[in-house]
Each structure stands twice: as structure tokens, then as C-alpha cells.
Amino acid sequence: MLPLSVAVVSCREPIATSPESPARFNLASAGFTGEVIVNDEEWIDRTIDEAPVEVPAHAIQTLALAPEPSIRVGVIYAELGALSIRLGGRDDGDTYELRGSTASGPVLATGLTGEAIATIVGSGSTAEIRLTLPRETGATITSSDPVVLTSASGFVRLRRSTTDPSIYRGTAEVRFNAARTRLVGVNELPIEQYLYGVVPRELGPIAFPLVEAQQAQAVAARTFARRRMQFCGASRCGHGYHVIPTTSDQVYGGFTAEHSLSTAAVRETRGIVGTYEGGLIEGLYSSTSGGWTANSEDVFLNALAYLRGVPDHERGEALAHVPSLAVFQRYANPTNLRNHANGDFEADWSIYHRWYVDWTVEEMRQVAGRAQLPSGVSFIDPGQVYAINAVSRSSSGRVFELHIVTEQRGTLVARKDAVRTALRYVTYAPGGAMVLNSLRSTLVYVEPVTDPRTKAIVGWEAWGGGWGHGVGMSQTGAVGMAEKGQTYGEILGHYYQGVVLERRWE
After folding, report:
1. 20 to 30 A from 11, CA-CA: which of 60, 238, 268, 480?
2. For the chain, what percentages of helix, strand and coil (3-state, to nearest 5) are there?
3. Tens-place pLDDT, residues 453-464
């Protein structure tokens, strides 16, 4: 999920548009020859697109008041390609032991302090994990099975370098990835303690201190995590964990990230999850809806009855209120809109409720040249970009199908959330490199900028709203609802239609 905190990176500053002054779009018209960096968000939803059949309601009901489950977090996940992992107790004075396979497996070493370093010896089916124990022992041990560290303090370190200050509750585990070619690091801990490290990273308590919003975030995050444990595919459980600590699942910072306000929100809602017809819901959420959330099928594959698009304001649910191009052009502003008069829940809290970006002709050539590439290819010159057309839109106003018409690559077609990586926006790094960033959302309107005399296209500009996929709860919308006096139950009931909140464990 997309985290919200006080520190956010702004879109490019808007430049006042004028049909008589297109000169600003002539920048880099001769062709950009510097470094180009692609910087896409990590969000990839697995469960909605790849989940097995829904667990029957009668099977779910047996989970009521069950013991609190533990979750396995791939803090060093397979895609990082780690060849070496450091693990230890909370600090160099914290004693710990190492066991094989599980926390109750055979003891490999005990009474250790400092950090052990795990590496790989051998390859393929004969590969083993070699652990170089702290200096005072001078010993090494090897294991073909996972190695689990349990400390006296109940806190652990699990990192790739000594510059990582992260500390986690629970146990630390080093194991092979599915192919036995790289190492992964797994932090296993009770799910409620996991949430202590998720909620402050997903909805920053300093910037967003409203208690009911924090509690809504806790329930959504708990539901999301528990369902990921229930539907765990090869991309996660194949490597030995349920979730990873990034926006691909939920941002998790461990004990280091905890904050008293967020922890209180987790404790006040302990065990509470969202259910629909007895089954756990997909507790999806994103930063900012832009005015209207999306139906699940507008972004992902499956139509889920409780994930229906709803307005992020108090002006009624008529589709006439769905943001249009005229609305964005009238209110476009990449800074915070404080618009109590319109009754928008999120406008007071998110600088991305409304945003604006633009591209020069050369910048758009770079964008189109990096859209929908074959594996191993970094750029295909599209020549001139003739048109960018939103062929169809969903009921929430989001682009459902986008066509980028080019001179040399033909028409590039992107659908649903893939629009965000087909139409990246441009920033520049301090050293001058061009950075292509995934579009904030698909709630966007793109228009050409033309020379008033020749009518030639000299650039492109877009007005949009929101940040993220837009399905489920708007995090800044939840904050706005809390500010207006809504409870966490009312917030969740607004964004997840017909959902029942149930306490599933003590």
C-alpha cells in the first residue's frame, strides 16, 4: 500500500499555461542524451488477480476467537537478490540462540552476542547456508534448512548492511529463496505486533493524528494482512513469507517505526477485521482517491460487491459529481487544497487531491519509448507522439483504456492501472538525469499543447487527482472523515460497502 507521512515528493511545479506562449515546451527539443531513470511505485496486487477460489463462509466462521495468528514478513525479500544477510539480537549485548528449521528446532548455537553473517556455499540442491558466528567464537556452522534466531530480549536485527538501524519484534530467520540461489530474511511475529510497525508507516501519526482515522487504518491493515496470509501465492509463500514490507503489500518498519498513537489504535481495535458474507474482505486502500474511489474491476480483474466506487465528499452519490476535465482545469493545484466549502473529505489533507503535470515533446518521446517494452529492452524510439487518447473511462472517471499513437511504434495500448506506467511523468535528479515516475493515478485528463500559429504539438499537459489505485479506503479521505466527526466504523462502512466488522481473535 502507499504510505502517507509528512514527507512527500511533489509533482513538478506547474507553470502558468498560456496558448500564446508555448515556448516553455521547447526544452530539450533536440533530444535528451543524459541518463534516464525509471522510478515506478512497487504496488502490484497479487490476491485480486491471482487468488484461488474464495474460502467458503462456513470455513471462515471457525476462525472466530481463534488464537492470535503470527505473520511472516520478508523484510529481505527474494527480489533483492541477497547473497549475504546479517542477523543478531537487539544490540551487541543481547544474547541469542540459533536453531535449525523453526524456533523450536534443534539448537545450532547458543549464548551468542553480536551479529552472525549468513552466506551461501555450494549451489543447486546441495547449496547450504553458512553462518559465520560473531568474532569471539570464530566458528562457522552450515545448514541446508532455514536458520532461526531467538533473542533474550524478544527483539532482533535482520539486515544486509550495518547502516540499516532497523529492529524487529519476534524472531529472525534466514532461508533460501524458492530457487535456492539467494537468501531471504524473514521476521516472524504476532500479527498485532506487526501492525505496530505498519500503521505509522502507512498513515503517519505526526501528520495525521486523528484517532478514528488511525483506527480505521489499523483495521484495514489487519484485514489486508490476514487475507494475504489466507491467500498466499508463489510470489510470497514460495519464498517462505506472507508479505513484504513495501507498497507491494504494506509498508512495515518494525519496532523502529512504532509510535504510541499508532500502537494505541492497533490495541483499541485488536482482532477486528472486515468481513463480507462471512469471509475476509480485500482490505485495499490507497493514499488519495481524487474525489471518487474506483470499483475493483476498474483496476484489477475481479468485481467485488463491497469494493464499489463511492464519492469522497458529502454532495451525494450521483455520477454527475465524478470529476471531469473542467473540474480539474478549474481547481488544478499541486499543493494542498483547503476547500471546506465543497465538503471534500480528503482535499484538506492531501496535496495530490488535485495535481498537474506537463511534458515537452522530447520528454514524451522518452516516456513512450519506455512503455510496454519486451524483456531485456530499455528503450525503443517511438519517433513523434501524435496523440494520447483515453478511449474509455470507468464510472469513477478513471482511464480504462489509453492509446498512445506514435510514429514508429504504432499505437501503444494500456489498460486499467497499467496506464500509470505507460504514461510516466518526468522529474530531474540533481545530477541532471531524467527520472520517469509512474503516474499518480489513472484519474487523469491529457491534452496536447499546440503552437497557436502552426497548430503543431509542442508538448503535453495533464490534470489529475488522487494518488494510488483508488480502490477501497482513501487514507486522506479517512482523515477528513475523522475530522468531520465520523467513527472508524463509519469510515470503513463508507469505503467498504456492506462490510461487517468482526473480532476474530482475543
Report:
1. 480
2. 25, 30, 45
3. 999 999 999 988
